[in-house]
Amino acid sequence: MSRLSDKLNQSLRRKNRVRSSVRGTSDRPRLSVHISNLHISAQIIDDSIQATIVSYSTTGKKLKGTKSEKAAIVGAEVAKLAKAKKINKVVLDRGPKMYHGRVKALAEAAREAGLEF
Fold this sequence. Notes:
The protein is an alpha+beta fold. The protein has a single domain, classed as Nucleotidyltransferase, domain 5 (2-Layer Sandwich), CATH 3.30.420.100. 41% of the residues lie in helices and 20% in strands. A four-stranded mixed β-sheet has the order 3-2-1-4. 31% of the residues are buried. The model has no long low-confidence stretch (mean pLDDT 94).
């Protein structure tokens, strides 16, 4: 295998390992975080009905600041939208990423805005 396909396989294994223990219910939906090189997106998903309840992303928006500051903005906005839908508790799904940097900034901003996880 090439080095690139090895990295992709390792990332998928980490993602599946996290997802095996994280499930979103109607009581505690899943806050899924996706980070690319330029953008960050977050969505709250109810796995029992397989539907996205709330989502927010930096794609197509003119946000100022560093990538971590943009992640904090996304976290605060997702929490605000979730509060409008009467969602207070969620389960964090960080995917293959470590709880560090932009993932941590998003999670802490969501906590400060009122989400519990």
